[in-house]
Amino acid sequence: MLDVANQVDWFYRTLNVRVALLGLEIWSDQDKILVDKNPTDTLNRFLEWRTRDLLPRLRHDNAQLVMGESFDGTTVGMASQSSMCTKDRSGGVNVDHLVSVLGVASTVAHELGHNLGMSHDTSDRHCECQNEPRLGGCIMEPSTGSMPGQLFSSCSERDLSLSLLHGGGMCLFNVPQPEKLLGGPRCGNLYVEKGEECDCGLLDECNDPCCNASTCKLVPGAQCSSDGICCENCRLRVAGWMCREPLGECDLPEFCTGTSPFCPPNVFLQNGEPCQDGVSYCYSGVCASLDDQCQQLWGANATRAPPVCFSSVNKEGNKYGNCGQTANGSYIPCSNADVHCGRIQCQGGGDRPLLGSNAQIRTARVRLNLKNFTCRGLYFDLGDGVSDPAMVAQGTACAPGKVCLDQRCQDVSVFGVEECRDKCNGHGPWAYPTAKHCYLTASARTNVITTKPLHPHGLAEFQPHTSGSSSHLLVRAASNSAVPGYPFPSLPSEPCLFPDHSIQQGETTQPVRESNENESACCVKAA
């Protein structure tokens, strides 16, 4: 299983993403969930077990179950689409269906790709694959043969970029604590571990002029290695240099601390903070809106359909209009209050959805007050059990002061945003997931606390678990595009205080984090 993890990591390096193995759990006595021939049921049980049992024990971004048994039909894997940074859906199940390590590694990479927002390489997408079909083709192809896919296509690269731009990788901007990596420290594995000052890979792949690949030590005169965005010409950038711009109005910028080559971990506004002039709400660092979701499905000119479309279609209780499914698979009609949290209804856009040829389009025409309205809906049957991405996204506004959660229109107060805002004493919104601090608004930045960097606090994982009949991998990916960093603001003894302090040249103005003793429900957020 360590070889599988290493191979998955190797696949993702071409996308500038690292997959780090945190631990391996072997189900040697008995399976922790019921594993049967139904891939959907097995996936749902596994994700429930992950949320209930695994996450409290081990913080991570993604879990993958690898099993020796097979599913019904030709399915060899299943995962939730675009679910990487969610608490309850970030994971997949995989069948070890080939003798070679490459087989299961390619399947895990495929399902992890779905979690990261990648769709299948269908013919209508005109994807470019640099690997010949006889050699396995590309990883995100809908089916696999005797030779597994070993490369990502141009479509996969575009899908990942789009997912990251829409906030799908908000939890990935950090790095693993080196001492938690499985396999022990090793110079040349591209992770800086105890006793190392840098690690630029093996001698034949290192191109860092600041790092000695043989010793994993900095060259004489160097302050830092060039793999950190806060390092320039082997010297640390000045404190306050912006190393990561916000991806949207629900994201926050990060700045170099002047003491580390790495950009601090990504932080964003608390779920439930208003955005788009108060029309929408922030959720997992993204301003969740129906118009944006329609554009992701149908293209740039798509918009949400009128309310009558949601109320007419989502009350039907079929695959084209519903508020979820029961345990036996039957569709749940939406109540009047929840119609905007069911299947998304759009208008305009392209003739076909952007996600490939396996979408079933349903165009409904409804009439209200002598006016005709066109409602465009989608149902995805993605073949290997990837969950349908055409449901209204979590955190989307469904009524004034209300948001969608689990296909129900609930009061935004469920996020505790008012309670958290009170902790900031009116000086700014609450930010998370890793910092859990008040983020200063412009009016509050004249009087701030300056902070000192804390010790490494990154997290990155990749974990297998095997038994005689089933196993699973816990996977954590970290992007190197803006190499995530270690420094963290220190913890003041009082929550969110803002004493008078003039900003001096060269000082870093960091957000102020609440103390551990005062952490409440608003602090306990999935990373």
TrEMBL record:
PROSITE patterns: ADAM_MEPRO (PS50215), DISINTEGRIN_2 (PS50214). The active site is at residue 111. Residues 184-271 form the Disintegrin domain. GO terms for cellular component: extracellular space. Residues 499-527 are annotated as: Disordered. GO terms for biological process: innate immune response; integrin-mediated signaling pathway; proteolysis. The keyword Zinc applies. Disulfide bonds join 243-263. Residues 1-176 form the Peptidase M12B domain. SUPFAM superfamilies: Blood coagulation inhibitor (disintegrin), Metalloproteases ('zincins'), catalytic domain. Keywords: Disulfide bond, Metal-binding, Zinc. One of its GO terms (molecular function) is metalloendopeptidase activity. Zn(2+) binds at residues 110, 114, 120. The keyword Disulfide bond applies. Residues 502-513 have a biased composition (Polar residues). This is ADAM metallopeptidase domain 15. It comes from Astyanax mexicanus (Blind cave fish).
